[in-house]
Amino acid sequence: MTQINSVLGPISADDLGFTLMHEHVMVAGPALYRWHPELLGPEPEETAIAALKRAKAQGIDTMVDATTFDLGREPELLARVSRASGVNIINVTGWWLDVPRWLLGVSPNQMAREFVREIEEGFHGTDVKAGLLKCAADSEGVTKRLEVMARAVARAHNETGVPIMVHSFPTGQVARRQIEIFREEGVDLTKVKIDHSNDTTDTEYLLWILDQGCYLGLDRYPGFLVSPHMRTVTLKSLIDMGYTEQLCPSHDCVCLHIFKENPDGSMPDEHQFKRLNVDEFQYIHRHVIPDLLEMGVDEATVETLFVDNPRRFFGGS
Asked: 23 is in which domain, residue-wise?
C-alpha cells in the first residue's frame, strides 16, 4: 500500500478522499511569514485554519499545497493548519520560478540531493517531509536556471518514485520542452502532472500532453485568462474524448497573501486573491461540479476526477 508524506506524517494513497491537487495555504516569500507576518494581515494562522475548516465541511479531505521554498513554504505552519482543520495537506519540494543569482552554477545533482533529503528526512529543522516534487517554467520558457531545477526534480523522482507536478504555461506550449527534459532523464511520464492546463482551450495541445501519459492539472478556477465557463467546457470536452482518468481539477487558490495598501493609504479588509475568488477552496463544489452535472457528467465521473485520479497519481490501488 503506497504511503504518502503528509505534513502530519505518512498516509495511505487509498485514504486521500476528495482531493484538490494544486492549492496554497500561503504564498509570500522565503521566511517572510517568520519575520514579517504582519504583511499577511490580521491573525493569518487563524484565517488559514478557518478557511480549511470550511473546506473540510464542504467535503474536501486532502489538499496538495504547491508552495516551494521560493514561494515562502512554512512546513510547521502547514502542520498546525492541517491538525486544526482536519484537512490532510501534502507539501512539495522542488522549485518554482524564482531562482536567484546565488544559485548560479549549482548542479542538478546538488539540487536533487536537497530535494531527496526533504522527502526522506524532512524540511530542515523539522520532521515534516515532502510528498511531491515540483518544478516550473512560464512565459519565458525553460530557461537555463529552470532547466537545472527540472532535471534535479527528475533525478529526485527517479531516486524516490515520488511523483512530479509541473507549473507550466500552456499559451506558449511550454510543456513540450518540459516533457522532453523528463524523457531525457528517464522519468515515468505517468507520474507527471502538467498544471495550469486550463489556462487554454487548445484541446489539440492538451491531448498531446495526455497522449504522452501525463496527467493534466486543470487547476485554475475561477482564473484569469479563460472564463470559468470555458474552463469547464474544456474539461467536459476532455471527459467526452475519453481522458477522464488523467484529469485533476483544482483552484490554485491562495489563502494567505500580502495585504497591499489602498491608494488612499488605508488597508483592505482582504487580499486581492480573496476578492477574486470569494468561495476560496469551495469554488469547485459550489460552481464547477454543479455545472458538470448540468452538462451531463455523472456522479461516478466526478468521483473519478477528485478521488480516484489523485489516488492513482500517488500510486494507490
From this structure: 3-313
Give the residue carrying C-alpha cell 533529503.
117
Measured distance CA(222)–CA(229) in Å, rounded: 9
DSSP assignment string, 176-190: HHHHHHHHHHT--GG
CA–CA separation, 172 vs 141, rounded Å? Answer: 8
Domain count, the chain: 1
CATH label of the domain that carries residue 56: 3.20.20.140
Alpha-carbon radius of gyration of the chain: 18
DSSP 199: G
Give the SS3 label for residue 210.
helix
Assess whether pLDDT exceeds 70 at residue 220.
yes
Q: Give the SS3 label for residue 92.
A: strand
Predicted confidence at residue 1, as pLDDT, reads 63
**Runs of H (alpha helix) within the chain:** 32-35, 44-58, 75-85, 108-120, 144-160, 175-185, 203-211, 228-240, 272-276, 283, 289-294, 299-303, 309-313
Q: How confident is the model at residue 271 (pLDDT cuts 50, 70, 90)?
A: confident
CA 63 to chain centre: 8
Checking if the pLDDT of 317 tops 70, the result is no
Task: Give, as one character, the DSSP assignment of residue 137.
Answer: -
pLDDT at res. 270: 83
Is the separation of the CB atoms in 159 and 193 below 8 Å? no
Q: How many angstroms separate the CA atoms of 161 and 167, rounded?
A: 19
Whether the Cβ atoms of residue 97 and residue 67 lie closer than 8 Å to each other: no
Position 306 pLDDT exceeds 80:
yes
Rounded to the nearest integer, the mean pLDDT of the chain is: 96
Cβ-based neighbours of 66, under 8 Å, separated by 6 or more: 22, 23, 24, 92, 134, 165, 167, 195, 252
Query: Cα–Cα distance between 181 and 203 in angstroms, integer?
Result: 22
Q: What is the DSSP letter of 277?
A: -
Amino acid identity for residue 190 in this structure: T
CA distance 90 to 252: 14
Any idea which residue has 519540494 for its cell? 93
How much is the pTM?
A: 0.97
